[in-house]
Amino acid sequence: MRKLWLFGGAAAVIVAGTAFVVLSGAKSPLHGADGKGKKPEVTLEFTSREVVSPKNVALPRRIEFSGSLVAPRTAIVRAKAAGTLLDLKVDEGSRVRAGQVLGAIDLSDLQARVADRAAAVDAAKAALEEAQRQHTAATGLAAQNFISPTALQTAQSKLDAAASQLKSAQAQLTTARIGVSEANLVAPIGGVVAKRSVVPGEKLSMEQPVLTIVDLAELELAGAVGTHEVSLLAPGMPVEVRVEGVDQPVAGKLIRISPAAEPGTRAIGVTITIANPQEKFRAGQYALASIVLPDSGLHLTVPTLAIVNVAGQDHVWLIDRGALVRRAVTTGRRDDARGLVEVLAGLTPAAQVLAAGYDNLREGAKAVVVERTGPTASAAASTVVR
Q1: Pairing state of beta strands 367-370 and 44-47?
Q2: Is the Cβ–Cβ distance between 223 and 210 less than 8 Å?
Q3: In what order do the strands lie in the sheet with 299-303?
């Protein structure tokens, strides 16, 4: 009996110890709930350069259009007579002056035609002289009543017909000579040979292109603007033109505005001109034209990078009462040159706006503005790349 009592007492001690351990372990979550193991919230710091206030500035309106430069003074030299091309004195890129002989065509056929027309003129002159003699003789005989009035009228008709034939022959001779003159390949304008379409020895047909000459002293750019913008434009307005491959913009001038929109579109054609005396630019280069319209009013603006678009809605991040706030805004005009965008609604001039959008920002997170220029909140939030 004594052994059983001792064994039961030991078991009771073991059970009591186990219960104590279990109860002691149950307290640990309660201690965690007291907040002793929770990390403190980090306050994001932004420098004064990373936080801006909306500013009221003028936003000059820009109307832009693009296209390829063209040379308005472009001439195509065509063969005015059929024949073999004997010589071509210029190549592509050659500079020519107005009236310069560019080549020669075999004009044997035209020259033979000129000789034939000249012979016809001589024959017509002889026929006219004979008709004149007959008419003179008939006039004398009629005065003496040796011939009837009808015979005199016949002589007069022959004289008139001979005179008409002479005029016709002379006109045909003039036409043939003009054909020979025009058949010579002569530069109609001064400029640069842009294209050579034939080679010596080739048989040319009437009106076949031989050379293309362009004058690069003045170039044009044709583009299109919306119908809502055309009323703001007028011929003579200055234009800023950026040509591909050229760092600095060049000055141009608006010279033409189409009177009607193009069919099927809401666009109206406009044309500008660019002086190119040094022939720095070439026809075919792509260019972007900008017309700046002055703005007399002021508009509330923020940096373009401050705008974050989420699901089609523009937002900005603000620091309001020591916390981050994401605010929906309505934007208007943009000035890409200065990196500004107009805010129509959602902000006041006193707002503290993050100058750039950041990833990993949380609304309601603590944030302050500091004066130092070292690493700040960007260490905890990366800038959005746009």
Answers
A1: parallel
A2: no
A3: 55-57, 299-303, 340-345, 330-335
The DSSP annotation for 170-225 comes to HHHHHHHHHHHHHHSEE-SS-EEEEEE---TTPEE-TT-EEEEEE-TTEEEEEEEE
DSSP code for 94 = -
Half-sphere exposure of 155 (CA within 13 A, CB side): 20
Whether the CB-CB separation of 182 and 47 falls below 8 Å is answered with no
Please enumerate in sequence order all residues whose Cβ is within 8 A of that of 225, keeping only pairs 6 or more positions apart, or say none: 63, 65, 233, 267, 268, 270
Strand partners, 222: 271
Give 226's strand partners.
267
Judge if pTM exceeds 0.85.
Answer: no
Can you tell me the distance from the alpha carbon of 302 to that of 327, in angstroms, rounded to the nearest whole number? 13
Q: For the chain, what is the total number of helices (H) and then of strands (E)?
A: 4, 25
DSSP helix/strand/coil, 35: coil
Q: What is the end-to-end Cα distance of the chain in Å, rounded?
A: 89
Cα atoms in the 13 Å half-sphere on the side-chain side of 181: 7
Among 369, 384, 353, smallest CA distance to 46 is for: 369
Residue environment code for 334-373, b if the CB has 16+ CB neighbours within 10 A, otherwise e: bbeeeebbbbeebbeeebbbbbbbbeebeeebebeeeeee
Mean pLDDT by 10 residues, the chain (386 residues): 38 38 38 52 85 90 91 92 88 92 83 86 89 85 80 85 90 83 85 93 90 95 91 92 92 94 87 93 93 86 90 90 91 86 91 85 88 53 43
